[in-house]
Amino acid sequence: MRITVFTPTYNRAHIIEKLYRSLQAQTFHDFEWLVIDDGSSDHTDQLFLKWMKEDNPFKIRYVYAENKGKMKELNYAMDLAVGELFFTVDSDDALTSDALEKIDIWERTIPQDGGFCGLAGSMGYNSVELSNPRLPGEYYDASLFQRYQDNGKEYIGADRAWVFYTNVYRTYKFPEFEGEKFIAEAVVWNRMAHDGLKIRCFNDVIYVFEHQEGGLTDVMSQTLIRSPRGYGLWQAEMMRFMNYSLKRRLKQYYIFYCDLMEKHSTREIASYIQCPICVMMALETVYRLKHRRRI
């Protein structure tokens, strides 16, 4: 099978039909729709029981799982996927009718030398209006570090329609921490970039998104704080891979301390972000002196 379209979902019965209809409208049919339901209680399962009986030109695989969080579900999905390409599409978004056809066409232009982790189309507010930067040329081969504006090279945008080779993605599974449900996808993407893998980007809009209140973006700050080990690992590796200056590292350590200080000890905070305890204790002192002056 060519493509696995993966959708993690949780209590999205009221909105996921839009994505389903966009998959029915695809001009390319060599794909499966793999859905992992992260413990929904809104009868999402009943929707899928109905849809799996419909005459679709693609296979639907619906898996109900206990509430583990998106990244653990991604790891699970990588094991279940049978497509050569792995494309994550959120339950509140939709694809253009030719999205999967364009993915198939563009992937065939990529050199098969093992130097690529995948490809990325554009996301848009609609089928023509890009939400990420328009890149020069017909296509652009980039590092995933170019998701960051200060990387010194062409900025490709932080959010695109990322499609990865399934066999590559499986070798970069998300770290899992007991009691934590979230880790930034950037942890894996930064590791791919650090290992020298490239991604082929093209300007065609294939993914149309709609911001939903209460989605992951809305609650990102609190989500990170509730998963301190994953949050800290992301920050520690990014600082190392991107060669942060001492000044910038200290600023990041300080932000991290402020985020976690109410629920974690200074020693725990230092260990999460791989910061020397003496440095974190000094930043704790700076925080206390700074806030004492405000009283």
Number of strands: 9
What's the pLDDT, averaged over the residues?
A: 92
Elements, N to C (H/E): EHEHEHEEHEEEHHEHHHHH
Radius of gyration: 21 Å
Largest sheet: 9 strands, mixed
Our count of helices gives 11
Distance between the termini: 64 Å
What is the approximate shape?
Answer: globular
pLDDT < 50 stretches = none
How much strand content do the residues show?
15-25%
Helix percent reads 25-40%
> Structural class of the secondary structure composition?
alpha/beta
Tell me what the structure shows.
By secondary structure, the protein is α/β, with parallel strands linked by helices. It has eleven helices and nine strands. It has helices at residues 17-24, 44-51, 70-80, 99-107, 166-169, 186-194, 220-225, 228-241, 246-260, 266-272, 277-294, and strands at 3-9, 31-37, 59-64, 85-88, 94-95, 116-124, 139-143, 161-165, 198-208. Helix 6 (186-194) packs parallel to helix 8, helix 9 (246-260) packs across helix 11 (277-294) and helix 10 (266-272) packs across helix 11 (277-294). It is globular and about 65 Å long. The mean pLDDT is 92.
